[in-house]
Amino acid sequence: xxxxxxxxxxxxxxxxxxxxxxxxxxxxxxxxxxxxxxxxxxxxxxxxxxxxxxxxxxxxxxxxxxxxxxxxxxxxxxxxxxxxxxxxxxxxxxxxxxxxxxxxxxxxxxxxxxxxxxxxxxxxxxxxxxxxxxxxxxxxxxxxxxxxxxxxxxxxxxxxxxxxxxxxxxxxxxxxxxxxxxxxxxxxxxxxxxxxxxxxxxxxxxxxxxxxxxxxxxxxxxxxxxxxxxxxxxxxxxxxxxxxxxxxxxxxxxxxxxxxxxxxxxxxxxxxxxxxxxxxxxxxxxxxxxxxxxxxxxxxxxxxxxxxxxxxxxxxxxxxxxx
Length: 323
Known about the structure:
By secondary structure, the chain is mostly beta strands. The chain contains two helices and 24 strands.
């Protein structure tokens, strides 16, 4: 009986070790240039622990733990009790030279006024909103103004996206999923924000339906290169169009695709006679994994085709609608 118990315990330990090894160990690792690293894996308490050597632990105000890009994350909603994660007024965070701000985010809607991933008196990283479109914005405090550097491609909704703002001492750059973005530059009036924060919403206009998920927030006192993104993700190396899911479907189905480079993408639906039914995507997309939902509530049962065109890549797949 005693030997059976020992064998059972050994098996449990081995299962635990295998499970631990099989988990995606893709979180950031702190190095000499990391001044803030929040894994956001906490499920209890009101402290967000800084994994850097500086101990810039944050105070959680109103937001909830959630599933993250890797392990845990935080869900921030636009309400008066969700004030983000307040960071200490530490000299290590008061960076005026080269800097990299990066995080994984997922938003379910664009909030009027913007969602700030990082807010500091010297720099900010923001999901800026303009009606039905949202763009990555990197702010730098220069003299009496903010200088805003904005991506030219919008950030998609309902999928995890890696975002980064970089200042190398002479030039600003913004990255989405490791791809360098074309940017527009504009000045704006400077106003101090007080205590630095992670993932706080603009308090001027609140949209109760808006939620933003944030994971792996890191600030570094150096201009990092794009390989940083590759080190913590599985970068796309090939074009790929996946089979829709569910299939058969009624009336909604999800279509996923991947592109290794920034490309202009069209994704269209056709009937079996080749007549175009719907255009799901017709715009430039950054590299990475993407998805879109097709709603066929006004169509009859039958077989339909969906076709992607991205640069020189073209592929068509079938899907079945059953009502």
